[in-house]
């Protein structure tokens, strides 16, 4: 079925179920009071009027994260060890073991009509695995010098911003942690990324919020300096001067939430995002959650990455019963290039973005996942999951040229399996500390971008409060 037809079908299904539930709730009023349509009204509360002061609400907190990962490649996939003088040696093993620590000072807002606040955070990382042959170039996991040796310890200013607030609207300027479907902090290493720019969040209504932002630099996870934005899958030597975005989040019903965003990456692309999420039923018996995500990407300006005309979507269904949940997800790319997003961001809100993104040109993929919350069996804080995902039909042979290396992709396919467990300490001095272990294996045909490898990852994070 063509992408547009599928999108219309998904929207029609959502509209039908929405209407049916609205009728059902109207019929059972007043028992269902507050569970039907939610009118958009100005908030009766005012966040700024409740401000207690710059010093009175200040905090000094943070966390330290131990990140260990071991990757072993298979088939033709290899990592490279820099041997100097332009020589390299291939290896099947890459290990990452680092300790990242964030110390975050956040003030409260000053009192008055306009409140002012500040945030400063220092990031530090220690390379616990420093063997040149083991880190295999470091990738985006271990910071290395020009000889490929691990930098033993390094620090940087991770966050530094000022905030101004009027009522329930906040302006943030400087280096910040930002979350949106286009520019989003990626925190899957010892330290997270952050972004330099200006952002506005307006939450003046009960069920409607607006976001506006513009960024010109990113602070990468494993770099000390800030850099210009680049694409995740295109030629990394091509940079964008800035990114601008606008979006809204709207919840018309208690169980229906929507997001709509538009973004311009200068001379790369214009990108549009739609999200619809619906929940029905009760977890005590059976709950069904549906999530639809759609991105449309078109080239713009100087078209530095070449022609781009890409429609990508995912549809996931999750059935939950008490401690158990089962997810089925389908994802499809309609375009002769990768579905692409900005490097050092997590701007890919798609169901099948796993170890692999399953985002090759014209790729279709399906995922089946099962999760278990052991709180239902007397072990609160312990959760486990297992999944498999398969992608097929990757075809870049019709690509018209540009910054994407896809012409050799002809009928490529791949499969991924993963299992994981996490535990959050519930009480005591280490309360809210978390340990998470995952194991994933990925098998790919000859020209699929991610290659064939296995990865074991163990991450421990301990939060702390000093003020």
Q: Notable features of this structure?
A:
6% helix, globular, 467 residues, mainly beta, disordered N terminus
Describe the structure.
This protein has helices spanning 3-27, 132-135; strands at residues 59-74, 79-84, 87-91, 93-106, 114-127, 153-166, 169-176, 194-202, 208-219, 243-253, 256-265, 269-282, 286-299, 309-321, 324-334, 364-373, 382-395, 410-424, 434-444, 452-465. It is 6% helix and 50% strand. With 467 residues, it is mainly beta. The N and C termini lie far apart (57 Å). It has 2 helices and 20 strands. The protein has an 18-stranded antiparallel beta barrel.
Q: Per DSSP, what share of the residues sits in E-state strands of 2 or more residues?
A: over 45%
Shape: globular
The radius of gyration computed from the alpha-carbon positions, rounded to a whole number of angstroms, is 23 Å
Helix content: under 10%
Record field, number of beta strands? 20
- What's the tally of helices? 2
Q: What order do the helices and strands follow?
A: HEEEEEHEEEEEEEEEEEEEEE
- How many strands, what sense, and barrel or not for the largest sheet? 18 strands, antiparallel, barrel
| Mean pLDDT figure | 93
**Helix-strand makeup class:** mainly beta
Distance between the termini: 57 Å
Low-confidence segments, given as residue ranges, are 1-34
């Amino acid at each position: 079925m063509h992408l547009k037809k599928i999108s219309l079908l998904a929207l029609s299904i959502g509209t039908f179920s929405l209407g049916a539930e609205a009728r059902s709730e109207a019929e059972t009023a007043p028992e269902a009071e507050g569970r039907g349509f939610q009118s958009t009204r100005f908030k009766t509360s005012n966040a700024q009027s409740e401000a207690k002061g710059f010093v009175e609400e200040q905090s000094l907190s943070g966390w330290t994260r131990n990140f260990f990962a071991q990757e072993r490649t298979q088939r033709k996939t290899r990592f490279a060890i820099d041997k100097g003088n332009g020589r390299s040696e291939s290896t099947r093993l890459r290990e990452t073991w680092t300790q990242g620590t964030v110390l975050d000072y956040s003030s409260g807002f000053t009192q008055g009509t306009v409140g002012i606040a500040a945030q400063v955070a220092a990031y530090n990382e220690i390379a616990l695995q420093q063997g040149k042959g083991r880190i295999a170039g470091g990738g985006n996991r271990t910071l290395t010098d020009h000889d490929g040796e691990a930098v033993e310890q390094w620090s940087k200013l991770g966050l530094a911003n000022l905030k101004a607030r009027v009522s329930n609207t906040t302006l943030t300027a400087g280096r910040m942690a930002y979350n949106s479907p286009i520019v989003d902090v990626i925190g899957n290493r010892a330290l997270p990324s952050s972004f330099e720019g200006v952002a506005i969040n307006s939450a003046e209504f009960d069920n409607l919020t607006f976001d506006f932002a513009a960024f010109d630099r990113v602070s990468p996870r494993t770099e000390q300096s800030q850099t210009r934005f680049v694409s995740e899958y295109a030629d990394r030597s091509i940079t964008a001067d800035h990114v601008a975005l606008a979006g809204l989040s709207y919840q018309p019903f208690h169980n229906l939430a929507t997001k709509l965003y538009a973004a311009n990456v200068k001379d790369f692309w214009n990108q549009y995002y739609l999200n619809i999420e619906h929940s029905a039923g009760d977890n005590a018996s059976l709950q069904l959650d549906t999530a639809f995500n759609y991105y449309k990407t078109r080239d713009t300006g100087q078209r530095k990455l070449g022609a781009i005309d890409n429609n990508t979507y995912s549809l996931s269904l999750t059935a939950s019963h008490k401690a158990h949940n089962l997810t089925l997800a389908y994802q499809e790319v309609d375009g002769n290039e990768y579905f692409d997003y900005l490097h050092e961001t997590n701007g890919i809100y798609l169901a099948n973005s796993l170890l692999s993104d399953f985002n090759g040109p014209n790729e279709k993929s399906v995922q089946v996942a099962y999760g278990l919350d052991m709180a239902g069996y007397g072990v609160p804080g312990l959760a486990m999951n297992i999944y498999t995902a398969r992608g097929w039909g990757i075809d870049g042979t019709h690509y018209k040229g540009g910054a994407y290396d896809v012409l050799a992709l002809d009928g490529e396919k791949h499969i991924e399996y993963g299992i994981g467990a996490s535990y959050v300490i519930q009480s005591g001095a280490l309360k809210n500390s978390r340990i998470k272990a995952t194991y994933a294996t990925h098998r790919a045909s000859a020209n699929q971008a991610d290659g064939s490898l296995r990865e074991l990852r163990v991450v421990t994070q301990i939060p702390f409060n000093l003020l």
